Amino acid sequence: MNGAVPPLPDPIELVAMDTARNIRRRYRIDMTVDLFGMFIVDLRWGRIGAHGQGKRLSFPDRAAAELHIAATLRRRANAESRIGVPYRHQSHS
């Protein structure tokens, strides 16, 4: 890794809720850099209030990590056609 890493994006929190249909889902995407300069993308998802599941992927450069994040967000964007509820961005307050 050469030099300092530019600022990384804030974690992305997505929520899909429909109380009438008992749908309460969350999806979180976080990008960090490990000690070896690899870009790590952490994905966490599941029912709100439950432990959920996760996956951690490593990429050799930031562009590859951002490409994967963009593909994941495209998949979440069509959730309404799959589960009947769109994901909404949850702000960090």
Notable characteristics:
q64v53_bacfr protein fold, 5 strands, elongated
Report what the structure shows.
The protein has helices at 62-77, 79-83; strands at 12-18, 23-33, 39-47, 53-59, 88-89. The protein is built from two helices and five strands. The chain has a single domain, classed as q64v53_bacfr protein fold. A hairpin with a 5-residue loop joins strand 3 and strand 4. Strands 4-3-2-1-5 form a five-stranded antiparallel beta sheet. The model has no long low-confidence stretch (mean pLDDT 90). The chain has 93 residues and is of the alpha+beta class. It is 23% helix and 39% strand. It is elongated and about 50 Å long. It starts with 11 loop residues before the first strand and ends with a strand.
Quick summary of this structure?
With 93 residues, the protein is of the alpha+beta class. Helices cover 23% and strands 39% of the residues.
List the SSEs and their pairings.
Elements: E1 12-18, E2 23-33, E3 39-47, E4 53-59, H1 62-77, H2 79-83, E5 88-89
Antiparallel strand pairs: 1-2, 1-5, 2-3, 3-4
Please state how the strands of the largest beta sheet are arranged side by side. Answer: 4-3-2-1-5
> Would you tell me the overall average pLDDT?
90
The total count of helices amounts to: 2
Radius of gyration (Å): 15 Å
Q: Number of DSSP strands?
A: 5
Helix and strand run: EEEEHHE
